[in-house]
Amino acid sequence: MRALFASAVFAIAVFAIALFAIAPAGSALAAPKPVIVAKPIPFGEARRSETAAYARRHYGLHTWRLTTPHVIVEHTTGTTSFSSAWSTFASDAPDAELGERPGTCAHFVIDRDGTIYQLVPLSTICRHTVGLNWTAIGIEHVGTSEASVLGNPRQLQASLQLTLWLMGRYGISLPNVIGHAESLTSRYHRERYARWRCQTHGDWQHARMVTYRAALARLARARRLELSRAGGPVASRC
Ligand SMILES: [Zn+2]
User: Distance, CA 177 to ligand 1 centroid (Å)?
Assistant: First the structure.
């Protein structure tokens, strides 16, 4: 009886050790997928061709497909409604600033109430950040400032959950979650068109992203997930 008990304990211990060895000690892969509402913008053959031509002009790639993204770029719309952002991205009009097609877009837009909308498949290049579109997922936040996003718990929580899930899905490290205003110091920045090489925007400055990334790291800790800190920024050549 005693021997039987001892061997049963031994078997359970071996099984537990085997399980521990198989399961990752803590991985962003375990981050749950948040609720995402599909609101696709039209992205048919014409827009795909425009995107492939854009990728060739600016990155030397002839494809509209986004494969193995390395970067997540956080944005703010500068407006107060989801519908106006959706309409702008759906229009495929040449952008007012640089005058090129395809029109600008983002993979996700997070509304003020915390609803996450997906506009473009993650397998498609979306034009949101000069120099990084070839490898970056774009997340827009409805709002007129980063402070308005950081001060809105529902919107911020949705953003952190979405970003954490994407990081796990694609193995994206914490330093590669950047604000649009940090684009020029990304190690993945590349731009063949000389006049655009130093172009960026003012949304999500470094100081705001320090706050955002700290909140992301806190959420990961609370969920016992390990985040990679590999691949920090590089010096800007601008
Ligand atoms: Zn932006």
Answer: 13
Residue 136 dihedral angles phi and psi, to the nearest 5°: -120, 140
- Distance between CA 203 and CA 122 in Å, rounded? 22
The rounded Å distance from CA 221 to ligand 1 centre is: 28
Residue type (1 letter), 114: G
- What distance in angstroms lies between residue 72's CA and the mean position of ligand 1's atoms? 12
- Write out pLDDT tens, residues 136-177: 999 999 999 999 999 999 999 999 999 999 999 999 999 999
List beta partners, residue 124: 65
Q: What values do phi and psi take at 157, rounded to 5?
A: -60, -40
Q: How far, in Å, CA of 64 to CA of 47, rounded?
A: 9
User: Rounded to the nearest 10 degrees, how much is the dihedral formed by the CA atoms of 20, 22, 23, 28?
Assistant: 140
Give all domains of the chain, ordered by start, each with its CATH number: 28-222 (3.40.80.10)
Tell me phi and psi for residue 190, to 5 degrees. Answer: -150, 140
Order the strands of the 71-76 sheet from edge to edge: 37-38, 116-118, 108-110, 136-141, 71-76, 177-179
**CA nearest 180: which of 212, 206, 154?**
206
Q: What is the pTM of this model?
A: 0.88
* Distance between CA atoms of residues 164 and 89, nearest Å: 24
Which secondary-structure segment (H or E) carries 161? helix 153-170
Round to whole Å and give the CA distance between 48 and 53.
9
For 150, how many CA atoms within 13 A lie in the half-sphere containing its CB?
Answer: 17
The Å distance, Cα 128 to ligand 1 centre, comes to 7
